[in-house]
Design brief:
By secondary structure, this protein is mainly alpha-helical. About 65% of the residues lie in helices and about 0% in strands. The protein has one domain. The protein is built from six helices and no strands. Helix 2 packs antiparallel against helix 5, helix 3 packs antiparallel against helix 4 and helix 4 packs across helix 6. The radius of gyration is 18 Å and the shape is elongated.
Length: about 140
């Protein structure tokens, strides 16, 4: 009867947790570290975990979310510098955006930890980011 259990297909959320990444990290650690340094660690884990669809998904979410935050910060800085004294409003908006990104990052790391590394959408912005993360993760083979 043991052979019958192995005939069932595994979904990405059922992959054993001992499935290690090239660096010897497990799925949970790879998913958490995908968010550690924003899009930089996202890029690293997108390619390092190309055989683990869940870690690739976390890495792709990290890339997309933090790249969007970076672009918005650059835009806010440019517009703020063009407006002179009114630029303080855009500087404050950039600060708020940075705090928001930090909160989302911490929540994402906690979520990846609680889920054991399986796919979980980013808190607050996941429904916007997840479809793009799926496309990015699927494009890396």
């Amino acid at each position: 009867m043991a052979g019958a259990a192995s005939t069932y297909a595994m979904t990405s959320s059922q992959v054993p947790s001992n499935n290690s990444l090239p660096a010897g990290l497990n799925k949970k650690t790879g998913a958490i570290l995908s968010y550690a340094l924003g899009w930089l660690t996202g890029i690293i884990f997108l390619f390092a975990a190309k055989n683990d669809p869940d870690v690739k998904f976390h890495a792709a979410q990290s890339i997309i979310f933090f790249a969007a935050v970076s672009v918005l910060n650059v835009v806010l800085s440019i517009v703020g510098s063009l407006l002179g004294a009114l630029g303080i409003i855009f500087s404050l908006a950039g600060l708020v955006l940075g705090v928001f990104a930090l909160v989302v990052c911490i929540m994402a790391m906690v979520g990846a930890n609680n889920s054991g590394g399986v796919r979980t959408e980013l808190p607050l912005v996941g429904k916007f980011v997840a479809p793009f993360a799926d496309q990015l993760a699927d494009s890396v083979k």
